[in-house]
Amino acid sequence: MANSSPSGGNTDDTALSQVEAELLQNVLDPEQSAPWLATNAAEEYTTQLETAGQTLEISDEEATQGWQKLSATLGQLWGDTASQTLLAQLQAKFAERLPSTLLTAISEKAQQVAQSGQPMAKQLITCVRDSFTNLAEADLQVMARPMAFAMRGSSTDEFIDVTLRSVREDDWAALSPIEQAKLSLAAARYAIAHVEIDERK
C-alpha cells in the first residue's frame, strides 16, 4: 500500500501535457486565437468607418464657404445686438424730443455711415436726409457743419445738450422743419459718437 503505481503519475502528466499542447495550439493558431471576433463583421465595420470618414471630408472651398456663412451669421447677431443697444441709448436721450420711428432710422443709418470714412457733416446729413426731403441740402449742410466741427473744445454730449436747449420744447408736429432737422442732426451726432466709442472697445 505504501508503494504507488508510477504509471498512474505518468498518465496524469501525459494527459496534462496533452491539454497544454492543445491550448497552446489554439492560442497560436491565428484562425482560432480569437473565436469571439466575427471576421466578416469586423471587415464590415471597418468599411462603414471608411465610408463615414469619406463622407465627412470637405474641400478647402467648402470649408471657406462654411466659415463665411458662420461669420455672417455671427455678424448679424452681433449687429442686431449693437443696433438695439444704440437705439436704447438714443431713446433714453431723445425720446421726449423726437418720434421713435425717426430715432430708429437714425440709429440704423449711424451704424452704416460711422465707419464709412466720409466727412462728419456728410455722415450727419445721410442719417437724416430721407426724413427731411422738404429741406434743401444746403440748409442741412449749414446746420450740420457746426455739429461736425465744434467738438474740439467740448465733449460731444455737452454740445448736444446745448443744441437741445437751443430748440424750444414743444410737440414734434408744432416745431418748424428747421427745428426738427436741428434736433435730428443732434441725435445723429450722438449716435455716431456712440458707434465710434463701441468700435474702439
How does this structure look, described?
- The chain has two domains: 6-56, no CATH class; 61-200, no CATH class.
- Helices cover 73% and strands 0% of the residues.
- It has eight helices and no strands.
- It has helices at residues 6-28, 39-56, 60-94, 100-113, 120-128, 137-149, 156-166, 177-200.
- Helix 7 (156-166) runs antiparallel to helix 8 (177-200).
What spatial form do the alpha-carbon principal axes imply?
rod-shaped
Output mean pLDDT: 78
Task: Report the C-alpha radius of gyration, rounded.
Answer: 41 Å
Given helix and strand content, the structural type is mainly alpha
Q: Can you write the helix and strand succession as a string?
A: HHHHHHHH
In total, the number of strands is 0
Q: Helical stretch count?
A: 8
Seen as an oligomer or otherwise, the chain set is: single chain
Tell me about the largest β-sheet.
none
Which percent range fits the helix content?
over 70%
- Strand percent estimate: under 5%
Low-confidence parts, pLDDT < 50 over ≥5 residues?
Answer: 1-5
Number of domains: 2
- How far the N terminus sits from the C terminus, by CA atoms, comes to 104 Å
Distinctive features:
201 residues; mainly alpha; disordered N terminus
Write the layout of secondary structure elements.
Blueprint: H1 6-28, H2 39-56, H3 60-94, H4 100-113, H5 120-128, H6 137-149, H7 156-166, H8 177-200
